[in-house]
């Protein structure tokens, strides 16, 4: 007898105008402050503010940090690889939203 599995998804809607401190972003994403600091150093994120104590991250950063955290945890990708992977994911998303040209043009 085959058992059917049920998958539940959870989601949070975060306003892009919301800002997170480094500690708040860490708590919300599951990533450590050290990981986030490394990703910032690699250019994966560009917070507002002069240093970690003053950094403010946009609401959109939460999704990116969660993605970075999963890539680091599940695929054991290092900080430079995280920055590259996020850039590539952004490129893919941009290509998907670009209108397609018809073959004759």
What Rg do the Cα atoms give? 17 Å
Mean pLDDT: 87
What is the topology, as strand order, of the major beta sheet?
1-2
Number of helices: 4
Question: What is the CATH architecture descriptor?
Answer: Orthogonal Bundle
- The share of residues in extended strands comes to under 5%
Order of helices and strands: EHHEHH
Low-confidence stretches: none
CATH class reads Mainly Alpha
- Per the CATH scheme, the topology name is Multidrug-efflux Transporter Regulator, Chain: A, Domain 2
Query: Could you describe the largest sheet, including whether it forms a barrel?
Result: 2 strands, antiparallel
How many separate domains? 1
Our measurement of the CA-to-CA distance between the termini, rounded to an integer number of angstroms, reads 55 Å
- Give the fraction of residues assigned to helices: 40-55%
Structural class: mainly alpha
Let me know the number of strands. Answer: 2
Which overall shape is indicated by the principal axes computed on the Cα atoms? globular
